[in-house]
Amino acid sequence: MENLLNCGTSFALLVCMSAIVSAQLHYSIPEEMELGAFVGNIAEDLRLNVWELSTRRFRVVSDQSKQYLEVNVDDGNLFVNERIDREQLCMQSLICSLSLQIALYNPEEMHGITVEILDINDNSPSFQKSEYYLHIGEQIALGARFPFESAHDPDIGTNTINTYQITPNEHFGIKVQTRRGGSKTAELVLEKPLDREQQETFQIMVTAVDGGTPRRSGTARIIITVLDANDNAPVFDHESYSATLPENAMRGTLVTKINAVDVDEGSNAELTYSFTDHVPQTLRELFRLDPKTGQIIVEGPLNFEKSVFYELDVEAIDNGSPALTGHSKVIITVTDVNDNAPVIHVISSSRTVPENAQPGTAVATISIMDLDSGENGQVNCQIAREFPFTLQKSSSNDYKLVINDILDRERTTMYNISISAWDGGSPPLSTQASVLISVSDINDNAPRFTQTSYNVYLMENNTPGSSIFAVSATDSDIGQNGDIVYTVLGNMVDADSESRYVTINSKNGNIYALTSFDYEVLKHFHFKVQAQDSGRPTLSSTATVSVIILDQNDNTPIIISPLMVNGSASVEILPQSIQPGYLVTKIIATDADSGQNSRLSYLLSERTDHSLFTVGVLTGEIRATRRFRDQDLVTDRIVLCVKDNGQPSLSTIATVFFLILPNSTTPSFESSVEPNDRKQPLNLNLYLIIALGSTSFLFLVTIFVLVVVKVKQDRHIDERYSSCFCCSDRRNSSIIYNQRHAAKDDTNYIDSGQTESYRYTVCLSPESSKSDFLFLKPCHPTLPFNDVGALENSARR
Questions:
Q1: I need a surface site. Which of 142, 199, 493, 765 has the fewest CB within 10 A?
Q2: How is domain 343-440 classified at the CATH fold level?
Q3: Which of the listed ranges 84-88, 203-207, 262-266, 613-617 does the model predict with the highest average pLDDT?
Q4: Among 537, 532, 367, 366, which residue's Cα sits nearest to residue 448?
Q5: Distances 153 to 91, 222, 582 between C-alpha atoms, Å
Q6: Which CATH number fits domain 448-550: 1.10.4030.10, 3.40.980.10, 2.60.40.60, 3.30.460.80?
Q7: Among candidates 17, 57, 31, which has minimal Cα distance to 115?
């Protein structure tokens, strides 16, 4: 036995297609090899390195319930893992083999292994009974054959029954026949006429001998009783009958009808049909023979995939005494019908694929088989066109599912790929299977702001540290690739960087002011906000945030003309000039605020003579309402209130003293301050002329200096502070009054570091020939020209 195993092992045959994606290996081993016996080296035959078996997740796939064969991952040896009994595994099939599938990953490979199990002579022939009885009429003709039950040997090929032998005798010989399936049957052949009077019984030992090495045998005893009379056996019309049935033949279908004839008469010619002892019980369950009519009828379900033909031994027994039999056989061929749908088996699958996987990448290995034959077993398969995948055939029954288009997780996160397979039958049978593929995320999308730029309107004097705005960005990636961090771009240390004014919450995008803003110092600024994800590599985008500071009414009006000293000013008037409507002076005030907060109105709160002067509410012009009378006081006083239009309104109080100069014909003027001092006459006219001339000269010098400064500053002023000119209704000449001052100084004109231009029109009144004063109208740079004109028209009304 050991020599036979060694011989079988050394006789192993390796057939390898090639070391490609799919290969077929073939080995042959004898049955009953000891556990652990070497079959072949998978790694060597597939031209693989041994270390690849573990790194590439080597796996053995088998359809058997038992793992008869196993592979040692350490050295690649294929060895016997379970006892292999060929007779138990394949019964008496001529070809017995074990099929394995070898799966490798990265890249996907599928290799088939067929291990043929060779038979050894480990079973002896045996008869079902130890004794058999035959009754033979004495008048039976020479050459009559008497089949007897064949011996059974589970081995195949040369190891199964090779011949039958009987003990030598004068009357009977043996004839051995080979059946279509290769099995041997034996019949006793009458070689010499029987004479019951000479010998009534015969005992013949039958020996069944196989062809193995060493040979094995089994014996049985045949006891023959010689009968008298009925000396003609039934004879069938044909030595064999043939029939063809589809495998889906229904129960009760007529297969064929057999017929035998007995030339005897009477009861000796009455025949009964039956199966011989050679027909196993499994076939008796599939077919039924009517003992009277000889009709063979389908009794059970047929299956082409299990057997393509059936051979039935039939006999006809007469009713004589002793009964005589005739023998024939019925060969039934089964044709295939399309009764098996294709079977889809997903051997391996990459359940998660990155979205940047390249077209051509294999994600699954699929096996599709159909048990039918011919066109019924030809399989076609496909997947839906809308999927970015395709099927590629790698071997006769194996396919690869590969990527054939670009994947995008943001569009589709998971694919449930339905695979359809159908055969070539009529009608075709089909089946479906699903492969679930998840697409993993990569950082291929930068964060996106809801807007590329934002405008934030913020009231000045805000609370430092309070939230002023919130930006928002979205990232279509997930996980770490979609986590957004917000930052303000710019140098926080650099004093010129506008990013120093704000900070941002890196998680939610809330923007906080670091300082309280003053509209008069800073009217607007902008900075960039960056949204950056946490992927590798990181992706980012930016948006511009423009902060526009809104004005609050936080500055009181300031009177710039006439010149105020401790809140009061004095104006000298010639009495002959005082006529109704005469412009005595004009109060010019400014407010550092803008818009309605800088729109001023002028009101008289107190006055010495209620009938002498009036003030323009919007213009600030103080005019005489009547002529000057001799009884009027030499000095007059008014208290003027200048207030803005803000909410709440802010105001400034100023006192204006009017000195009524004596007429030019009056020889002298006595000071009201020293009315009792008459000893020192003063030339008041001369003093007044000198004072008036000095005041006019200083005022003109001041205007000239301001114009020069304005010309120099226009070279550096920003485009947003473009010049605007306000002209009077009478188109008089205009002078631009531009004043730049430090933050929070006495006038509160503008913030530090900024240049604020206040423009005034020098309006010459009809009484300009009588007055040396220039009256200026403000034009704020933050107001459009049309708004300025509207304000002036409103003021005139």
A1: 493
A2: Immunoglobulin-like (2.60.40)
A3: 203-207
A4: 532
A5: 11, 19, 149
A6: 2.60.40.60
A7: 31
Which tokens sit at 350? 């990459």
pLDDT tens across 776-792, in order? 333 333 333 334 343 33
- CATH number belonging to domain 558-796: 2.60.40.60
Q: Give the E-state strand segments of 292-361 in sequence order.
A: 295-298, 309-318, 325-335, 343-349, 352-354
DSSP symbols for 237-254? S-SEEEEEEETTPPTT-E
393 within 8 A of 408, measured Cβ to Cβ: no
Cα–Cα dist 397/585, whole Å: 111
Residue 335 carries which side chain, given as an amino acid letter? T
Return the closest-CA partner of residue 739 out of 758, 761, 720: 758
HEC letters along 375-397: HHHCEEEEECCCCCEEEEECCCC
Q: What's the pLDDT band for 625 if we cut at 50, 70, 90?
A: confident
Encode pLDDT of 248-291 as tens digits. Answer: 899 999 999 999 998 877 788 899 999 998 899 999 999 999 99
Contact between 153 and 159 under an 8 Å Cβ cutoff? The reply is yes
DSSP 266-278: GGGG-EEEEE-TT
Measured distance CA(779)–CA(182) in Å, rounded: 123
Cβ partners under 8 Å of residue 639, min gap 6: 604, 605, 606, 607, 653, 654, 655
Lowest mean pLDDT among 40-44, 434-438, 680-684: 680-684
| CA atoms of 510 and 529, how far apart (whole Å) | 11
What values do phi and psi take at 465, rounded to 5?
Answer: 90, -5
- Contact between residue 184 and residue 176 where contact means Cβ atoms under 8 Å apart: yes
Helices (H), 36-141: 42-45, 52-55, 86-90
Please answer whether residues 108 and 348 qualify as being in contact, where contact means their C-beta atoms are separated by less than 8 angstroms: yes
Report how far residue 529's alpha carbon sits from residue 508's, in angstroms, rounded to the nearest whole number: 12
Q: Is the peptide bond before 537 cis (omega within 30 degrees of 0)?
A: yes
Examine residue 766 and say whether the peptide bond preceding it is cis (omega within 30 degrees of 0). Answer: no
Tell which CATH classification among 1.10.10.10, 2.60.40.60, 1.20.1510.10, 2.60.40.420 matches the domain 2-118. 2.60.40.60
Give pLDDT tens digits for 390-435: 998 888 888 999 999 889 888 888 999 889 999 888 889 899 888 9
Q: Answer whether 605's CB lies under 8 Å from 639's CB.
A: yes
| Partners of residue 655 on adjacent β-strands | 568, 639
The full length of the chain comes to: 797
The domain spans of the chain are 2-118, 131-227, 235-335, 343-440, 448-550, 558-796
- CATH topology identical between 2-118 and 131-227: yes
Please give the Cα distance from 426 to 112 (Å, whole number): 31
Residue from 764, 761, 786, 794 nearest 776 by CA: 761
Buried b (16+ CB within 10 A) or exposed e, 608-643: eeeebbbbbeebbbbbbeeebeeebeeebebbbbbb
The CA distance from 525 to 444, in Å, is 33
Residue 352 burial by CB count (10 A; 0-12/13-18/19+): exposed, middle or buried? exposed
Enter the CATH code of domain 235-335. Answer: 2.60.40.60
- Pairing state of beta strands 240-246 and 325-335? parallel
The greatest distance separating any two alpha carbons of the chain, rounded to the nearest whole angstrom, comes to 208
Pull the structure tokens for residue 337: 């019908």
- Give the DSSP H/E element, type plus range, for residue 4: helix 2-10
- C-beta of residue 35 within 8 angstroms of C-beta of residue 83: yes
Question: Residue 229 in contact with residue 321, Cβ under 8 Å?
Answer: yes
User: 131-227 has which CATH code?
Assistant: 2.60.40.60
Please name which of 401, 406, 403, 404 lies closest in space to residue 418, comparing C-alpha atoms: 401
